[in-house]
Design the sequence.
């Protein structure tokens, strides 16, 4: 589907509630399926990725019933059954890597498959630690499809070479089924939703700085209320900051500090983003944001903040095109292993719109403020985040742009355009 995007002259105004967090939705349905009892999940995401996790848990014998548009009821005795089919993770790296950890500790064999993009993404990062724990995994060249022959696992102390919540969560989930203690230490702290939810459901888990330890535990079902996704809010934050005359409110946004790098960046660029109200819901911090159009200046982004904004970098690149000076983003080489090579894809497509953006091995150098010309067609490389970032760039282009294959947004955010239209008057 080709989506045409036009310049917004009057600014964005109004209030919206961004949909459920994708990372927490995956975890709710996977951990809920492993927990004994009935788990009520409120505000589950409609994105295709979390639905891949849901369907896989159903294929493993977990009873999951949709009780309203966004609520699920899971009934489980805590045990999984051998699947009759290959488990299809679709486009979702989170599903494949988290399920890899769960399945390694079962007493049956299973196979995880994915779409073309997922089948080209690296799985060695989970195969190596799981194999050290005693798992038997077969793949071609460390890529999906991966077959997992269930075995008794033993705990390990693993120093992860990368700050990745998917790798960390995979090992912690295998650790739930392993004899002894399992620990993961990462170079910088990545999103900690697994730690918070596993603890909330009763796992024997401790955190000490960058190190997380878990012991074999039984999870007990509890109600899980999922907050809004700051990664989805990011497109509105950037749009509110760069479209002149904007003043918008984003309700119920997850503000877990391991995810709020974009707020720190917006602040360092002089962006007017205010946290209005903050509370804790199901172990996660949540609040409302007010975003106003701002005169922005460039910034430098590197090191420990990278995992705290990893999925927002294409949107931040758009922000940087509208900031005075040169913004440098470094230490983000893992962006090349996402749904697309997000460094090459973002630089190539923003350049088509007229941005001054240089691709670095591990990030970008972006000069601004640029009057984006637009007037052309852009590609999304099977990548939902690129599609939404280009849409936001289109709002400040001089001439209409056409985004090809825009339907990829449904991977995380099917409601994206209808919510946007609510802010246009
Ligand atoms: C995710 C972790 C991140 C992120 C992805 C979701 C998660 O990936 O990019 O969109 O839910 O754990 P990495 O762990 O590979 O950095």
Sequence:
């Amino acid at each position: 589907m080709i989506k045409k995007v036009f310049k917004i002259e009057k600014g964005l105004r109004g209030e919206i509630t961004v949909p459920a967090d994708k990372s927490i939705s995956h975890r709710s349905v996977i951990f809920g399926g492993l927990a004994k009892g009935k788990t009520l999940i409120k505000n589950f995401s409609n994105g295709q990725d979390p639905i891949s996790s849901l369907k896989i848990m159903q294929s493993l014998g977990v009873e999951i019933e949709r009780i309203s548009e966004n609520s699920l009821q899971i009934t489980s005795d805590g045990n999984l059954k051998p699947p009759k089919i290959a488990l299809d993770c679709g486009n979702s790296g989170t599903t494949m890597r988290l399920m890899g950890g769960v399945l390694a500790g079962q007493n049956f064999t299973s196979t995880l498959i994915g779409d073309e993009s997922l089948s080209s993404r690296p799985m060695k990062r989970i195969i190596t630690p799981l194999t050290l724990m005693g798992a038997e995994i077969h793949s071609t060249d460390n890529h999906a499809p991966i077959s997992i022959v269930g075995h008794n696992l033993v705990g390990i102390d693993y120093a992860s070479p990368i700050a990745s919540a998917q790798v960390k969560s995979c090992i912690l989930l295998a650790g739930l089924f392993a004899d002894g203690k399992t620990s993961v230490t990462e170079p910088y702290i990545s999103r900690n939703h697994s730690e918070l939810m596993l603890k909330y459901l009763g796992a024997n888990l401790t955190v000490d700085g960058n190190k997380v330890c878990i012991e074999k535990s039984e999870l007990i079902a509890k109600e899980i209320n999922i907050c809004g996704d700051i990664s989805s809010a990011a497109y509105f934050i950037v749009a509110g900051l760069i479209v002149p005359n904007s003043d918008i409110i984003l309700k119920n946004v997850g503000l877990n500090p391991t995810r709020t790098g974009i707020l720190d960046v917006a602040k360092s660029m002089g962006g007017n983003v205010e946290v209005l109200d903050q509370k804790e819901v199901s172990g996660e911090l949540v609040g409302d944001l007010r975003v106003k159009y701002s005169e922005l200046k460039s910034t430098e982004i590197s090191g420990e903040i990278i995992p705290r904004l990893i999925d927002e970098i294409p949107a931040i690149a758009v922000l940087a095109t509208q900031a005075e000076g040169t913004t440098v983003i470094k230490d983000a080489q893992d962006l090349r292993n996402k749904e697309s090579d997000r460094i090459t894809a973002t630089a190539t497509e923003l350049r088509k719109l007229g941005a001054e953006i240089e691709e670095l091995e591990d990030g970008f150098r972006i000069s601004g403020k640029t009057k984006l010309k637009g007037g052309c067609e852009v590609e999304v490389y099977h990548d939902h985040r690129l599609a939404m970032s280009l849409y936001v760039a289109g709002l400040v282009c001089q001439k209409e742009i056409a985004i090809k294959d825009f339907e990829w947004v449904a991977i995380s955010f099917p409601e994206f355009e209808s919510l946007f239209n609510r802010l246009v008057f």
Summary: The radius of gyration is 21 Å.
